[in-house]
Each structure stands twice: as structure tokens, then as C-alpha cells.
Hints:
By secondary structure, this protein is mainly beta.
Amino acid sequence: MVLSLQGFSQNTVLGNWLVYIGNKEINSRLNVHHEIQYRNYNLLGDKEQFLARTGVGYNLSENNNNLLLGYAYIQSNNYQGEHQRIRSEEHRIYQQFITKQVFGRSYWWHRYRFEQRFADDFKMRLRYFLNVRVPLNSTKLDPGTFFLSGYNELFMNVKKDTAFDRNRLYGGMGYQVNSFIKLELGYMNQFLASTNRDQLNVFMFAKF
Length: 208
């Protein structure tokens, strides 16, 4: 589970994302991913987007390499002008590959995702996510460990004239509470085609 409070530099002083991410192991090879996100422009009551994502994954090797085929549903309520809202729906089919490595005391996590997006028209998008965590007071991410965290995610449309979609750059600090929960506080700048957003993130990750 992830709880994210985000401060927007444009329309609102403080927005929030509520995100639940879960993974259920069927056996040593198969897993089921499930995820729900509820995003607000403000702290409460001004919904920006609802997202539900699921998928079935297959482990190529233990804990390090996972292939997944999934589906996502997205409902958005975007502003057009100051007061007018436009509601839209999108269905996605996606394929992804996740690989993890450990180098010394740093933990690296790569995700490659290919999305087929069905909304008013059909679009395809490529995403690459790179995350690194470095423990500070331990050599491993054991309970009671503080760690530095950073990630970058690049979104690219499969169209030459509008190839760049967005880029998310994040840096923060976290705390491994126990084997199941870690907390994280950081700053993210989301670079869009014509603008950018400064965001303050507070995360809670829970593994069940």
C-alpha cells in the first residue's frame, strides 16, 4: 500500500494520491498484481483520477525477473479552464518486465512497460522506471534502517511528432519499519511537454 500526499505548484496548494499496491504469490512462479489509485487535486473532495490495475505475472528467476500481462481502467476528471470539468475513461492493456539487482549496498529496480491505450482514440506508450535505494545505517534494508531513495520514470508515445509524454524525477528518504512496511518522504518534479509540476510525496508501502 502506498499513501502519497502531493503538493502541486499550479492549481492547488496541496493535492493527494491514495494508492494501494498488492502482490499475491500463487506459487514460486506465478503472481497476481492488483492496484488501486485515487487521486485528488485537493486533500479531499476534488477527484482528479481513479485508476485500477491488475495483472498476472511469471517469475523467470527467483525474486529478480518477472514478466507480467495486465489490464488497467482509468477514469479522469480534468479541468478545462478554471471551473469546467471533463470526464473521460480509458482502458489499457499492458505488458511489463521487472528486474532487480543489488550492487554493494544499493538496491536497483528496473521496470519496462508497454501500454496499449483505448480512450477517444488508440495510443501506445513506452515507460521505463528506474529506482534505487541505499541504506544509511545498515548494509541491508533490514528493519530499523534509514535509506535514501530516488527514481526516474520516462514516458514515450509511439508517435514521432509527439514522442515525449512526460518524465518523473524523485528523490527522498525512507525508513524500513519492519519486514512488511516502509515509509518514505520525498520531492518529485513531473516534467510535461509544456510545463512541469513540483510535488511533495509521502509514501507508505505495505507488503502482505
